Predict the structure.
Amino acid sequence: GENVEQHPSTLSVQEGDSAVIKCTYSDSASNYFPWYKQELGKRPQLIIDIRSNVGEKKDQRIAVTLNKTAKHFSLHITETQPEDSAVYFCAAPVGFRSNYQLIWGAGTKLIIKP
Amino acid sequence: NAGVMQNPRHLVRRRGQEARLRCSPMKGHSHVYWYRQLPEEGLKFMVYLQKENIIDESGMPKERFSAEFPKEGPSILRIQQVVRGDSAAYFCASSPLATVPLNNEQFFGPGTRLTVL
């Protein structure tokens, strides 16, 4: 069925260390993979996305990697800072909605320990 | 260019009352999505609308819930005869074109936090 699985559900890292969040998807035809960040009490906001024609994309401390064969993509945050604490959501177009809509992962709560 | 607007930001209703949530998409955006988010949980898709059309309402309960996006004015998510289980944050998002396959970002509003007493 249509599915996007996200792991881990909670991630706690020391400030300055790296954090990695992984998502797997079920539809091999999926071609667009955004990551959204939601701070406590606020709206989700797009932080980075990747299309299926590339394997990696970087934006300062944030990077996303895509493995189409294995059907998974990951968010990498390096040199983590307190303001990185938030819930992160991945998404992908999957299944019968794939022509127009995204399926969302369940979210990862990232905690940056000082 | 104002972002996606939602009102009210907080709404308190007693069981059995009606809740009306409004979403004004960004200027130029004709695609609206409604999501529900329970505390400590992810975004659950409810409905996707274009102007005057419901494209996909498969995520919305068939009873008590309805949505519209008229030619003029905001999109409305309506919940009739609310129950305690309807308490959640309701987010709308808009995009200028379809998110897929054109890879357009969904811009989220600040959400409406509905509390049912």
User: Anything to note?
Assistant: Chain B has no helices and eleven strands. The interface with chain A takes residues 33, 40-45, 48, 55-56, 91, 93, 98-101, 103, 105-106, 108-111 of chain B (CB under 8 Å).
